[in-house]
Every structure is written in C-alpha cells, then in structure tokens.
Amino acid sequence: MGKATKQSCLAGITAWLLIVIALWYPPALMAGETLARVRTNNTVHCGVTEQLLGFSFQDENGRWQGFNVDFCRAVAAAALGDAEKVRFMPLTAPNRFPILLSGKIDLLAHTATWTFGREAGIGVEFPGIYFYDGQTFAVPVEKEIKRLEDLNGMAICVEKGTTYQANMADTFKKRGRPYTPVVVDSQEELVKSGRAGRWQDRKIVYSYFSLKDK
Known about the structure:
Layout: H1 3-24, H2 27-30, H3 33-41, E1 44-49, E2 57-58, E3 64-65, H4 67-80, E4 86-91, H5 93-102, E5 107-109, H6 116-121, E6 133-138, E7 155-159, H7 163-174, E8 180-184, H8 187-195, E9 204-211
Parallel strand pairs: 1-4, 1-5, 7-8, 7-9
Antiparallel strand pairs: 2-3, 6-9
C-alpha cells in the first residue's frame, strides 16, 4: 500500500470516527475522564490484538501496522491533532478487559465481540461496531471435514477468554455432538502450537475468527 493510499485510508477512518463521536456522545461525555487523561498525557494509550496480520502487527522496521492500529491513530488524530501520538500495547484475550478497566490504556482496538454480558456485567462500554467477523475452524487437509457434524468427538483448540468457547459449547450441545475443548492462553500460543507440530495430531482442530463481509 502506497503512502498516499495509507493517508487516504487514515483520513477516511478519522472522518468516520468524528461522525460517530458527534452522533453518539453528548458534549459532557466527550469532555469526560478518558479524554481529559489523553489530553493531559498528550498520548493515546491503545490496546491492540497480538500479532495478527491485517489488524495489528509490527513490520520489519518495528512500526505497528494494521486496521486496529490505524483506528488508534485516527483517534489520536481526532483527539490530539496528531496521528503519531499513540502508544500500542499488545494484549491477549484474557487480559484485554482487565487492562482496559484498570486505566492502563485509554482505548481497546481488539478482536472483542460486543456482548450484553460484557457491557452490563463488567462495565465495558462499546461505542459502536467497526468490523464484522465470524467464527470458523481450521482442520488438517487430510481429514476432509466438510461440515460441523464431522467434528464429532474431536478436540478443538480455542483461546481463553473469547466468545468462541461459549459459541462452541452452545452449538455442539444443540446438535448433540461431543467434543473436547483444548484451551490456550493466547492467540500466539494457539498459532505456535500449530507450527510446533500439533497439527500432526489428526484429532486436533483450531477455532478462531474469520473475516466476513456484511
């Protein structure tokens, strides 16, 4: 992606962000504690996904890139007038909300599903949806799995603290299909377990998010 294209993309995200702020937040809330802290620190502390190509990752020069990263820079541009006044903190699924609620970051731009339980139960505020995704399974090619029922009795590796766990439990229960969840602590661990050879265990399946146009 060229420099001009990146700037155009960032400008578009910034414009969208300003519209969301104008429509969703009254002036009193805009001048709230988080915005005041950002302006006092002159920096947006942004929590992002672990290394996830297309969303948040460090390039060969160590610079953060990706959709979530660009959104954080757009917030910095809107709040401070400078897209570079942002610091990134990569977070796992289990620690993203505790870190946000602790005040160590100002904004969470992560693969975080908006649920009633999270908003009402732990006090996380979701101002709007900026990306739609889905859930899928990665399986060894040799298994030739074509449908969900083919996963009957298999072990499914899934990241802790995600909605994927509950989604799978509900879906397999409704279909009367047994499975064994293999829970890992982070997305990085999930990927490493595959690269380290656990794919050779033909009974291991990996559950993660997939991209869908909606």
